Sequence to fold (310 residues):
Amino acid sequence: MATYNYRDIDDFIHSRVRLMIMSFLAAARSADFTELKKQLEVSDGNLSTHLSKLEEAGYVALSKKFIGKKPQTLISISAKGDTAFKNYVESLAEMVGLNPKK
Amino acid sequence: MAETQDNNQNTSPSQQAETDLALIRSMMAAGRKRAGADGAHLVLWGALLMVTFFVQYASVIGRLPPLQTSLWVITLVIGWSASFYLGKRMPRAECENNIALIGYANAWLAVGITMALYFITASIFGQLDTRTVTVLSAGTFGSAFFVISHVLQVRPLRFAAAGWWLVMIYLVQVKSFGPEVLLVMGISCGPLILVPGLFLRRLASGKG
Fold:
């Protein structure tokens, strides 16, 4: 059986909430805060904390703007985040015997 | 919510990896739905073009008074106005930085611009040719479906692309360009525009 070496796993992504955020954004490319909160079923504070970590790693970009009179935070996946996510998925796939790295 | 690295005390690493992959798959599926177009424009244009071709056919065979050019002007005005309204209704946040939606919208914008440019120029210079406009529309529809099947990652849309290219081949080779061509175009708009639009609506609502 292959070993699951956590030292090889991206710590910024390896959290359930952050993994869900990155997976959603990898497909959707961007989402607003409220939409993401609804998808993940987490609290404002929890989501903010995880987004800050991903932003700190440069995996997502946050932009704030007003739609009419309502403030809105738009979260987009960055190129760095895209690459990190792909690498993370490849590591998992390798772990379960799919798409092994040559 | 518990962290992934903290909740794998009772599962083997590979089981944990499988669970994570399943979570990734489900979230990416949710993300793709968000990124996808809702097909409203296709339903609108599919129905509109179908009706227009059938009305034109009825007009050409004498069941309705002659109204060829005015009919298409009305169709284009209704279609563009409704498309603009549908576009305005969509939340800006859903469009910005959304490559799939940008690709989808621009593929159809390119079709609209091509057809409008041909229609206006040919009308001004008296060169409006039924065969050219139908071949051009079938070819550009096929190209647009081919592009959106890739950007939306909805493979069945390739059948619509192939369908329109077959229609184009038929239109190019047909010897006599009679009223039956209008019937072919009207019927084609059903399975090749309206149905793909309804299919996308179903995907967008999560029933697909």
